[in-house]
Structure prediction request, 368 residues.
Amino acid sequence: MKKIFVILIMMTFSLAAWATVDYNNTNLRHKIAQMLIVGFDGVKLTKECQLYDDLINDRISGVIIFSDDVKGVLKYKNVQNPKQLKELISDINKVSKTKLFITIDEEGGKISRLPSSRGFNVKTLSHKELGDKNEEMTTYLEAKKIASELKSLGFNMNFAPCVDLAINPNSEVIYKAQRAFSDDPLRVIKHANMYILAHNQYGILTVLKHFPGHGSSSFDTHKGFADSSENWLPKELEPYQALISNGAAQNIMVSHIFNKNIDDKYPASLSNATVSGLLKGKLGFSGLIITDDMQMKAIFDNYSFEEAAISAINAGCDLLIYGNNLNYDKNVAKKFNDVVFKAVQDGKISPKRIDEAYLKITKVKERL
Prediction:
């Protein structure tokens, strides 16, 4: 009888230990999932969609919406008309087990995912046009138009404003696309403040971009390796410093720009010196740090999936974006979760780094 009792006790401890390990693993996977924003194909959420599977299995923290399919396969990526988009976002939220970041790039001007040709009312002046007018109230009213439309559709995060400086006239992705308010940091700061204020009034989170400055580079990180080392100027940090100091900077997107003045090995999004050393350390930023799309060719063509994800997290990035537009991978959420989970188990990412990111993410989501 005594022997049986001992065996039962041992089995109880064994089961308890198993339960603890299983709970911790489940908890760790949940935390990792909260670090991921993904794009997807489709204008409707069905049970056959990969996104549906990712939502019910708690693999993601949010989604990013695109109007057009870069691959040219779909007539509409996610956006058909206002009624359809509102229903899509509502269905996504209903299926999700957790509060989601519903995100978009809606800067204004040419950078819009909500075209008027599909029934949306967000046609606004570009950042450049607003900077040229240099009227704070005009910037506020144009940003208010964007923020109110995003709120009505169900968005809660806008990857804007762009606080790059209009330094390089040969830049296709910034200067020629009219995405910079000005080459003057003070003017950029002034208009970014108004842009953020309008979004705040509608409960839409803003994201400053593209740290540590994309306006001096001639190259486009969408298309490949982009080096700003020769043209980058320290004044490109001034909008970030000012907006962090006055509390306007809620979240910041880190670019894939390579700048040997800051890190001679890694591009910004994978660079500990840039993210933890400069942004978090020297500039004192404590908000959410988000990568630009990790499937841009600057990263996709030069680093393995594992190296890029692990390096970005270790650098200090809290949220990673896989837009699934430039390079489509329907299993990217599962791949990300598995890669990061294994990296933690193997000691390549510390649990403390995951916990730090998770705490920041949950605090932001509590305010949504």
In short: Residues 1-23 have pLDDT under 50 and may be disordered. The two ends are 58 Å apart (CA to CA). The beta strands are 36-38, 62-65, 101-104, 157-158, 205-211, 251-254, 288-293, 319-322. The longest strand covers residues 205-211.
